[in-house]
Write a structure and sequence with these properties.
The chain is α/β, with parallel strands linked by helices and 216 residues long. It is 36% helix and 15% strand. The chain has a seven-stranded parallel sheet, sandwiched between helices. Helix 1 (3-13) crosses helix 6 (178-189) and helix 2 (30-43) packs parallel to helix 5. The longest helix has 18 residues, at 150-167. 31% of the residues are buried.
């Protein structure tokens, strides 16, 4: 483990935003999931929630390329589950959805704990979900088509969230808990050992300041 590698991992983890997330509802296409996860990593999102397509979860496997190693993905069978969990933590749910009550995405305060809900490629966010969200947003368009690709729309919304949070100083100091920081650091620095510990149900061993595992 080189000093440069330790510094790189620490620097990225220090910018992670534990109260900003994305939830996908029935997004089927592999390239869209991959693009969304990559953008989540780029803006410092730690965890995303994926409500799996009704046809099954096979499309989610190995779809996020290298970003899959840096962003935790939680899979759910119904949209009610992640929304209930997020609301219990005081997170506002912002759905990207074209409707009469939708507002410009730039009018949302993304410095608040926020989950961006992205719906399926054709149907969009379901009626069930719309009954639970706090805000519906749109990305204004000047052309003939009514909407962007789901991953592009997500990227635009997250870029605005990043802009607001940078202005508020959210990337200037560590926001992950000490426990989660240590967990993520170990998984990123020692992925094979972390995988073995997870498989065997073992606690992660401590690491020293150089990122090396401390022999017990």
């Amino acid at each position: 483990m080189t000093p440069e590698r330790v510094e790189r991992i620490s620097s990225v983890l220090n910018k992670r935003q534990p109260d900003l997330t994305v939830s996908t509802e029935e997004v089927h296409k592999q390239r869209n999931i991959a693009a969304i996860v990559r953008k989540c990593d780029a803006v410092g999102i730690d965890t995303v929630q994926c409500v799996m397509p009704r046809e099954g979860d096979q499309v989610y496997r190995g779809t996020a390329a290298s970003a899959n190693k840096w962003v935790e993905q939680c899979h759910y069978s119904t949209v009610q589950e992640p929304i209930d969990q997020l609301k219990a933590k005081g997170v506002q749910i912002v759905a990207a959805h074209l409707c009469d009550t939708a507002i410009d995405y730039r009018d949302i305060d993304f410095t608040k704990p926020t989950a961006v809900l992205m719906g399926a490629e054709v149907e969009g966010v379901s009626e069930e979900s719309m009954g639970m969200v706090d805000h519906a947003v749109i990305v204004p368009m000047m052309g003939m088509v009514e909407s962007y690709n789901v991953s592009v729309a997500c990227a635009l919304i997250l870029a605005e969230a990043q802009r607001q949070r940078e202005g508020a100083g959210f990337y200037s100091e560590r926001r992950l808990s000490e426990e989660l920081y240590k967990k993520r650091f170990f998984c990123w620095a020692h992925p094979k050992l972390a995988e073995m510990c997870d498989r065997e149900g073992l606690m992660y061993p401590p690491v020293d300041e150089e990122g090396e595992v401390i022999a017990l």
